[in-house]
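Review form for a predicted model. The reviewer records the input and the model, then writes brief findings.
Reviewer: anonymous (R2)
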Amino acid sequence: MIIYGKNTVKEAILAKRTVYIIYKDKKASDRAIDNLIEENKIKVKLTDKHELNLMTHDGLHQGIVAEVQDYKTYDIEEIFDEEIKRVVILDKIEDPHNFGAIIRTAEAVKMDYIIIQSKGQAQISPVVAKIASGALEHVKIVVVQNLNNAVSKMKENGFWIIGSSLDGSEEFTDIDPKLNYGVIVGNEGVGISYQLKQNCDFMVKIPMIGQVNSLNVSVAAALLMYKLKKLY
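Model under review:
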């Protein structure tokens, strides 16, 4: 897999991800990253900005691109143990920038897992890794074939499921911090699917006092994750 950007590549090296080769702009230099590359004896090819632009489809590579081992994903069974869990469930988030931003916030608040569906939504990609800015190294992504089935299995294993919607009626203050929770964030255009809404134990609404009654999905997800983690 190709990743790019200073923070993304640096975190990959620090996390001991296998880095096969690094491509660097011969006109750019970053002593901190150069030292990491030398310390870890990583193969480097000096090139020019044009080639890096082609490799990243004109992504904001900051003069550095790396070919690395693919990111590991997890099975739904991984989340079921004796520890209290906080999980964010993404229902067909299509924009890789939103997915990457959600990963970055999930790492910041130490959510335990992110669950995504294997089809119909943005997957782990170079763009997602760049927007996550290294956070992908520290967040566990569970990939399932069917989100509704995964949510049902979570409920069977003691999870309470929270949905977010403009017509939600519950408050986070009603939630017991000693229980396992999964919070669902819906698609950018249509929100949470009908089936998943039916499978939720609570539907919450983010209170807003301004004139605009909706938020970007990654912003809404950030507010929900911070609120959920604050319950610890």
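Findings: The chain has two domains: 2-68, 76-229.
Further findings: The helical segments are 6-14, 31-39, 49-55, 96-108, 126-132, 147-156, 194-198, 217-229.
Recommendation: see findings above.
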